[in-house]
Design brief:
Elements lengths: L9 E6 L1 H10 L1 E3 L1 E2 L6 H4 L5 E3 L3 H10 L3 H12 E8 L6 H6 L8 H8 L5 H7 L6 E6 H9 L10 E5 L1 E3 L3 H6 L1 E3 H7 L1 H17 L1 E3 L7 E7 L8 E3 L4 E6 L8 H11 L5
Parallel strand pairs: 4-9, 8-10
Antiparallel strand pairs: 1-5, 1-6, 2-12, 3-5, 5-11, 6-13, 7-11
Helix pairs in contact: 1-12, 10-11
Length: 268
């Protein structure tokens, strides 16, 4: 029987020692603003434009709602907060097919190692201090439930939880940057914005270039009332394990073990 942390429901958050300690101490994960330094599509400003049926409507929008495109961009970049995790690799690519073929197929256990979300060398290198950091292992169902139950003082708060989709040609993203003139006229700028986010949240937040596919990202997105607002997600009932990197400093082992044991169960 495989260890429970090999379950397909497991998702992981890779981080450095410096960030892992306060996370485990406070039992909270902090959301970041959307669009980190990694993906140029996400961290650059987006050019929104209007879409409608007549040239006169376009002209009216440009005259009376000229700030709407910049408001849409600013809201997404500053008031949409995200948390990212690495999830199970369910791809059936040529390499996995090769593992199952021939006279000496790879054992199911070793195949699981390659699919699980906490054994990704590139993730350890890129996000966990080049293998000196920590991988926090969560139950996907539990942490998503905690996320959906988060309370906000922002009455218009929206929440989205999905796996990221990877593709080369993202034509749908172009459509998602077209603001409905009808919605602007009917609801005004901000109500039209919330309606737009509901309609296009997948295209806006959950599409990435195929080059990022090895991250197998699972993402949580929540809107805030102000740009400076911090959103925190409790992890005390969803944390399943804490795994340290192969180059994790020995001097920090005792402290991280104590913090992990206080927060959940420590798997070595």
């Amino acid at each position: 029987m495989l260890n429970p942390i090999f379950d397909t429901n497991i998702i992981c958050h890779y981080t450095t020692i410096e960030y892992a300690k306060p996370i485990l101490k406070d039992k909270m994960l902090k959301f970041s603003t959307f669009g980190g330094p990694g993906d140029p599509r996400e961290n650059k400003n987006w050019d929104f434009d209007f879409i409608g049926h007549s040239l006169s409507q376009h002209q009216q929008c440009r005259e009376h709602h000229s700030k709407a495109p910049s408001i849409f961009n600013k809201f997404i970049k500053e008031r949409c907060k995200t948390l990212s995790f690495c999830e199970w690799n369910n791809e059936d690519n040529d390499e996995f097919k090769r593992m199952n073929s021939g006279k000496n197929p790879i054992s199911p256990y070793l195949q699981v190692i390659h699919r699980t979300s906490f054994a990704r060398s590139r993730m350890w290198t890129q996000y966990a201090g080049n293998h000196t950091g920590v991988c926090l292992v969560f139950s996907k169902d539990k942490i998503t439930e905690q996320f959906l139950q988060l309370q906000s003082t922002f009455k218009q708060a929206q929440k989205f939880a999905k796996s990221v989709e990877y593709m080369y040609h993202r034509w749908d993203f172009n459509t998602s940057r077209k603001i409905s003139i009808a919605d602007i006229f009917k609801f005004d700028t901000y109500p039209a914005l919330y309606k737009h986010l509901n309609r296009f949240h997948h295209e806006l937040f959950f599409l990435k270039n195929m080059d990022y596919r090895d991250e197998h990202e699972y993402r949580l997105v929540m809107t805030s009332e102000k740009s400076e607002d911090n959103i925190w997600l409790p992890i005390y009932s969803s944390l399943e394990a804490v795994i340290v990197g192969i180059d994790f400093p020995k001097k920090d082992c005792a402290e991280i073990t104590e913090l992990a044991q206080d927060a959940a169960i420590m798997y070595n």
